[in-house]
Amino acid sequence: MIVFDLKCGSKGHVFEAWFGSSADYEQQKARGLLTCPMCGDADVGKAVMAPAVGAKGNSRPDPAPAAAAPEKAAPVAMSGADQAKMQAFVEALAQAQSKVLEESTWVGRDFANQARAMHYGEQDRSSIHGDVAPDEARALIAEGVEVAPLPFPVIPPHAKN
Question: Is the pTM higher than 0.85?
Answer without folding.
Answer: no
